[in-house]
Amino acid sequence: MKRTICIFLSLLLLILCCSCSSVDENGGEQLTYWYAAGYGDDMVEIIKRYNRWCSSHSSDDMKIKLVEFEDYNTMIQRMNIEVMSGGGPDLFSNYMDLPFEKLIQNNAFLDLNDLIENDTATDKIDLSEYNEAVMDAGVYHGKRYAIPAFYSIRSLTGWEALFKQYKMPTEQGFHLTFKNMDEVLSAYLNDPGDVRFMSGLTDSSGVSADTLILMLIDSRVDFKERSIAFDDEFKEQLELLLKLREHSDSADAELPVVFDDGAEKTYLFDTSAYSNPMWMERTASNSARESDEDTGKPILYSCFEKDADTYSAGVVEAVYVNANTAKSEKVLPFLKYLLGEHFQNLVTGTDEEYWSGGGADCLPVLNSAFDNCVRDAHKITDLYGEKIGVKDELSEMTMALLTHIEKLNSVSMYFDVNGSYYNRNVVTPILQDYRDGKINIDKLIGGLTTATKIYLEE
User: Which of 101, 218, 306, 354 is the most exposed place for a label (fewest CB within 10 A)?
Assistant: First the structure.
């Protein structure tokens, strides 16, 4: 499961101890959400908590029916067929392996602007209270097909001494892009020594050399405008990332490992950084105590942005609604719960809602909940997470993170780039042919071009 929201929600599930599986795929008068047994899907845990909230507020008629399938692939195959014919569940999330861009083109999802704008209730959702850049990730040509709830920043950390060794910038929050990476990493590429570029071991919230390739490809595809830019510059950048991959650990068994068994490995970029300023501040405080003359302080880099003007993030949780649902009036109560201050604070672990020294490493879309995260980043805590004081200034790493968030202008509907339908089913098979030596880089780009055009246009 993700390092982000899922760990926290799984703990909540143990507390709630409620089972909601069903063989009734229609749900009667209830909204429905499909899931597969044994497949990590945080939206299931969110819905279970929402259903518990409905019971405690005498709103059982607003509960969502969870429909369980024994096998994930069977569920997805069935869902693809039914959605195209006007059926399927009422609710979808970005956890599902569905071609969302193509489904949007086919008007498979409800325009949620209609629901929000026509709401006459006193607790109407006011979109101006939320992060505009993140919320707009779900907007296609003026129609709001998805509602993001939480998001995360992609960033990397390394150690000051190693960066200085390779003549890399040591300023916190340095904006590393696909356009300047050749210059920034030139000394490393000329003589990497025994330093690996990156570890290949990455969870869904991490970054590896392989995911960087996917990020580069994604940066050259405009899914909303249905255009691609696999030009000569793209080829040069791809060749550089492929070279960096050769200096990285990988799950690919055919990639040679150049270190003796048992030898300690050193990585230029050794970890993905936190997104929540509360977690970042604690990490910065611990790292400051651990740093020494050999390592120096930890340095935060933005994670290979498209260009100097791009500040990106990825959506962790998002909801889509079936355009053919007959229960649209029941959607708004769930969205209000998901976007409400109580739940937004609860997931991210601020003092406003049951602070326990923890929370998920993600960011809330609600501006006031984000402000609470920044406020609580100033806390000084003991080993048990209990507040023992307040610091006047945040660390340079945390301030660099906050600057990135403030400039945010490019948000993907996927934080885990491996999880999108396009990357998993269109891009990865072609990349694997290249890795297996079946095609050269020109055929790799040609294959990507043809397959992407088919995905976008047909």
Answer: 354
- Alpha-carbon torsion angle 310, 445, 140, 317, nearest 10: -70
Q: How far apart are CA 134 and CA 365, in angstroms?
A: 7
Alpha-carbon gap, residue 4 to 7, rounded angstroms: 7
Cα torsion angle, 118, 121, 122, 127, sign:
negative
Instruction: Please name the helix (run of DSSP H) or strand (run of DSSP E) that holds residue 234, with its range, or none.
Output: helix 232-246
Q: What is the mean pLDDT of residues 59-63?
A: 94
Q: How far is CA 298 from CA 166, 290, 305, in A?
A: 15, 10, 20
Q: Does domain 5-149+318-345 have CATH number 3.40.630.30?
A: no
Q: Can you give the pTM of this predicted structure?
A: 0.89
For 115-152, the pLDDT digits (tens) are 999 999 999 999 999 999 999 999 999 999 999 999 99
Q: Do domains 5-149+318-345 and 155-310+415-457 have the same CATH topology?
A: yes
CATH number belonging to domain 155-310+415-457:
3.40.190
Please report, for residues 102, 129, 177, 231, 321, the alpha-carbon distance to residue 225 in angstroms, rounded to integers and kept in the order given.
Answer: 12, 28, 23, 17, 22
